[in-house]
Design brief:
Helix content is 31%, strand content 15%. The chain has 287 residues and is an alpha/beta fold.
């Protein structure tokens, strides 16, 4: 009598529901993100020039390509762990000691609070760390936990409410470059300080702070912005650069807010600082 073929035990993963939605390729993801940013800039320029016909034509292109939902889908896949796209991993490398010790204790036992603007995922490194009480906001959230809110319309914290309602760190990861107008980018950076609360605890030199991530080309290949100018802009807003990392695609910053510094109120116009046909037109202005 022939031996019965022994069946292998069923894997747990085989019992889980499958997501049949095909993933976008890395090339398609990058193309969608770049195209959306380009169209958004063109739309902003058309609106600034009161060119209604051009604005409608550009908006039609955006809608035809899937609009913001498609852009967010591409962004989420681009930030997946499988593609190494979680920008908050860099922040956690800066905040957690390499020897595995402490995770940023605070003298009064207060948990660190983070405001994540443009939040896409609930499973990034910051979320998994357990270090932060997170408030996540986005214009068009992809998860019910993420609040639908425009950062530029978020009510400011009153001075007396900062201790309870303020944040130790605000994250603007690949958010500022999404804004089409240079002045609005500057206004976004200016607003961050109104949400930062005083900090006293371990690694005091890093808080309160702004985690800022931009495409590397915004500072390495722009006609109107380089790192020296970005430093000057941030210093005028009372920030001091605490950390920086440049990769082939992105540049990461941790800016420490120094409220005691008077800051130098200065106007930054859109001025060419690097010539060349291959330069991009990314700019940040303040008035």
């Amino acid at each position: 009598m022939a031996n019965k073929r022994q069946r292998r035990p069923q894997l747990l993963s085989s019992t889980r529901p499958h997501n049949n939605k095909p993933a976008l390729s890395s090339r398609t993801t990058r193309s969608l993100v770049r195209s959306h940013h380009t169209l958004r800039k063109q739309l902003s320029a058309a609106l600034s020039n009161s060119d209604t016909c051009e604005a409608q034509a550009i908006q039609a292109k955006i809608d035809a390509s899937g609009g913001l939902p498609k852009y967010q889908e591409a962004s989420i896949q681009g930030q997946s762990a499988q593609r190494g796209g979680d920008t908050s991993k860099v922040l956690m490398e800066w905040l957690i000691k390499q020897d595995g010790e402490d995770k940023i204790s605070v003298k009064n036992g207060r948990q660190l609070r983070m405001l994540e603007v443009g939040a896409l995922r609930l499973d990034n490194a910051c979320s998994r760390s357990g270090l932060f009480k997170l408030e996540r906001i986005d214009l068009h959230p992809q998860h019910p936990v993420i609040r639908e809110q425009n950062f530029m319309e978020k009510p400011n914290c009153a001075a007396g409410d900062l201790e309870q309602g303020g944040f130790d760190i605000v994250s603007l990861s690949l958010v500022v470059n999404f804004v089409g107008d240079p002045l609005e980018r500057g206004e976004m950076l200016s607003r961050v300080a109104s949400f930062l609360r005083p900090y006293s605890g371990h690694k005091e030199g890093l808080f309160p702070s702004l985690f800022l991530v931009l495409p590397a080309a915004c500072v390495t290949n722009s006609r109107y912005l380089d790192e020296k100018r970005l430093d000057a802009i941030m210093e005028s807003l009372r920030y001091k650069r605490a950390k920086r990392k440049l990769s082939s695609k992105l540049v990461y910053y941790l800016w420490k807010y120094e409220a005691r510094n008077a800051g130098i109120s200065k106007v930054f116009k859109k001025e060419e600082i690097r010539a060349g046909k291959s330069r991009n037109n990314f700019a940040i202005t303040l008035r």
